Amino acid sequence: MTTDKNKKIALHCQNITKTYGSGASKVQALRGVDLDVYEGELLMLVGPSGCGKTTFVSVVTTLLTFDSGVCDVLGKDLNTLSDAQKVHFRGENIGFVFQSFNLLPSLNAMENVAIPLLIAGVKRETALNKAKEIIDAMGLESKHYSKPNELSGGEQQRVAVARAIVHDPKLIVCDEPTSSLDHESGQMVMKLLKKISEEEHRTLIVVTHDNRIYEYADRMAHMEDGKITRIEENKENKGNE
To answer: Are the CB atoms for 234 and 217 separated by under 8 Å?
Structure first.
């Protein structure tokens, strides 16, 4: 496993296992996953469908429990957190970007982006003002009041990215963020994510099958049959241009 003593580890996983079902229907989704992810890194998690990628990111974001092993995220040992503490930890520290955008159709762009702040108890006016700032930074100044069905796929995904970062999370997890986008839109979204990683020193884990965006990774973790099989540095990544 690739390590670097000069970098601070944001996420440390050692021998993580996860099994679904029992008896004849038992499925071992994670078979001893070892992975360190560094602060300010954009790490891509790649591998065939069914290899355990989604299960793994669900574990590290506290959405799923795991059977055994050590999982330390942003200095917290997940084994020590209660369910209520996990909800609080996610709300304060983790942002999510989904393949299907997951925008609420009845809300405009600003309202969608403001959701994490409103859930955290921020006053509506303050939350909407912060959402507006983030949307403007995404180059969507004219789309504040547009609803999802009035936005292109690329615009919807940028709104989804804005929602993921509006509460200043330290860890952002993206599940296939570009696979449903055309090349130009996908490149725009990845440039935004790379900029967030580099300039704001946030840790990003991007689960993807989209080889069009591999060049944006700092490192790539390859997964097969519930294990990390190899990790490779990307010396040609877009951050070095």
So the answer is: yes
Rounded-to-integer distance, Cα 125 and Cα 123, Å: 6
Spatial strand order of the sheet with 27-38 comes to: 27-38, 9-20, 68-73, 76-77
Tell whether domain 9-236 is in CATH 3.40.50.300: yes
* C-beta atoms surrounding 6 within 10 Å: 5
Whole-prediction pTM: 0.89
pLDDT along the chain (241 residues), means of 10: 67 96 88 96 94 94 95 95 94 89 94 93 95 91 95 91 92 90 87 90 93 94 96 74 50
CA distance 165 to 95: 6
CA distance 56 to 64: 9
What is the C-alpha separation between 154 and 226, in angstroms, rounded?
Answer: 32
**Conformational region of residue 101, where left means phi above 0, alpha means psi within -120 to 50, and beta covers everything else:** left
